[in-house]
Design goal:
Elements lengths: L7 H12 L8 H46 L33
Length: 106
């Protein structure tokens, strides 16, 4: 989003009020509205900058998190992939399961 110019919001408000039959002439009331519009424009522009910075930081942290997940879930590579004495059909034998009774937990 492009930043809003200082007098841009006041000009739009003036045109809107003029279309409704209210003309803003020089005086304390239009000056107060102009100051209020200027403060609002500053707040909007600063908020937009903050949101943009937050989005960049969130995207950066999300990429880091994805990288960590990728590293933790990637398949492990063997240290010696070509000189392994085991054949593909032979794998580690499963361990015998112990009984899950109350006596086994003591």
């Amino acid at each position: 989003m492009k930043p809003i110019e200082k007098d841009e919001l006041y000009e739009h408000v003036s045109q809107f009020l003029k279309a409704k039959g209210i003309e803003m002439k020089d005086g304390s009331y239009p000056r107060g509205i102009q100051k209020g519009c200027s403060i609002l424009v500053d707040a909007i522009n600063l908020s937009q900058k903050g949101i943009t910075k937050a989005k960049v930081q969130i995207d950066k942290n999300l990429d880091r998190m994805r990288q960590v997940i990728h590293e933790k879930t990637a398949p492990k590579t063997a240290s010696k992939p070509s000189g392994s004495p085991r054949s593909k059909g032979q794998g580690p034998k499963p361990k015998a399961q112990s009984p899950k009774g109350k006596a086994a937990k003591r």
